Known about the structure:
Blueprint: E1 2-8, H1 16-29, E2 34-40, H2 52-55, E3 59-60, E4 66-67, H3 69-78, E5 87-89, H4 90-102, H5 113-132, E6 136-141, H6 151-163, E7 168-175, H7 188-199, E8 206-211, H8 217-227, E9 234-238, H9 246-252, H10 255-262, H11 274-284, E10 290-297, E11 301-302, E12 305-306, H12 312-324, E13 328-335, H13 337-341, E14 354-357, H14 366-378, E15 383-386, H15 388-400, E16 408-409, E17 419-423, H16 425-432, E18 441-449, H17 454-459, E19 463-470, E20 472-474, H18 479-484, E21 487-493, E22 498-504, E23 510-513, H19 528-540
Parallel strand pairs: 1-6, 1-7, 2-5, 2-6, 7-8, 8-9, 10-13, 10-14, 14-15, 15-23, 16-17
Antiparallel strand pairs: 3-4, 11-12, 17-20, 18-19, 18-21, 21-22, 22-23
Helix pairs in contact: 1-3, 1-9, 4-5, 5-6, 12-19, 14-15
Amino acid sequence: MKYIFVIGGVMSGIGKGITTASIGKILQSKGFEVTAIKIDPYINVDAGTMNPVEHGEVFVTDDGIECDQDIGNYERFLDRNITTDNYMTTGRVYQAVIERERNLGYHGKCVEVVPHIPEEVIRRIKRAGRRAKADFVLVEIGGTVGEYQNLLFLEAARMMHLTHPRDVLFVLVSYLPIPKMIGEMKTKPTQYAARTLNEAGIQPDLIIARSEVPLDEPRKRKIATFCNIDKRNIISAPDIETIYEVPINFEKDRLGLRILNRFRLRSKRGEGLSQWKRLVRVIKNPNNPRVKIGICGKYFTTGSFVLIDSYISVIEAIKHACWYFKRTPEIHWIDSESYEKNPNKVKELRNYDGIIVPGGYGSRGIEGKITAIKFARENKVPFLGLCYGMQLAVVEFSRNVCKMKNAHTTEINKNTKYPVIDLMPEQRLKIKEKKYGGTMRLGAYPCKLISGTLAQRAYGCINISERHRHRYEFNNCFRKKLRENGLVISGINPERDLVEIIELKNHPFFLGCQFHPEFKSRPVRPHPLFREFIRAAISNS
């Protein structure tokens, strides 16, 4: 088994996750089995309790781990389901070591930060590789080199290289700025990043040179000289139109060959990147007709900036479905709070081909979302509600069709006369005891579809499995009344008789699902619900 550590230099947000996923895709295209691990240096045990505006989307795996959005990138690029073994935080590592010490797992030894914490990191890396039966294990270390909280993970990487020098490779992803006042690409930050990595006992084997434009020969020579690296192992990574072009761009510098040569390996029989290249041609085709989709949410404003990372899987799922039809997505952000301040503004939704109300929590902007859903229902605008979006569609239908005035979710109004969405029974004690982390209904659960419904036609089968992340649920006490008024319940969890999917007849597309279908969408295999939503949006354009 071979191990590739991907480490960031200069600053965060330059694409370590996409780099890791792209390296994996390249190796996969050459016939190797690949898995990827994300290490986050924060003390949180998982990403579930973090504010999405600050941290970005919380991605959920089949086995119910709330993790970093990079895990989603790994799944989309590699078309593999990632598990709990592939996600690591400082909190999880320390928690495991302390629990083992409490259970006499160290046989009375004095347990210390070094070597026991790095040894636990190494144990987890190797376990993930074994369980995935991988030829290559890619390990992305979050943050940037030089940050104090990363030292123990770098120490683990150093220790692995010390004991397995022929099986470990280090990739430094660094940024080369082009200051406007100078107009020249500067290599000095990358030199410092490499030197700081050297101080941790690690010499990079490859440098991924991120910048606005391709790296030129003078810069390559300078990096090679001052970072002690073969010029051929410096890979140019300029800004490009789509992240899915990154593996193709890397291969221009023959990155896959450089890695295989380092490990003294030959390419196996693989499918190559031909399918991936066809996808990129579709993405970049300027003649594609456009599909205008509005996302009505609240987790994308931070000061004067728009933070799309809060909904990254939703965005990618929309793209995948549009590309399936050889269309270009035109995504617009709709702040739901604006409809609360000015209800007449909702008429602008006529300008969209389709509307999505994604997941979320809390009361801020909720009435604006309900207003948007009502408009989509009454004006036949294709609508897709995800998790909270589905719940609010039930609230809207209850209020305005079933005449249950002020019907609500008890998440917002505990005293509502019509609690059409209510807390799941097992969640009451957890909330009372303030047990919030990792306690929601998480991960994959089965769902049985009703024949002849929109959902069943989309999936083309009866039994499905989808990923969840919620505490509140459709209240079955109101199921009969809502059905009598025209709500179609098209998906049920067979184990507990929970409502999973609702839809409407006599509408181009109006569907809400309690789960998160966006987590299972793939670039060349869009999720059925997103695919059919975009089909309806195209018809509406």
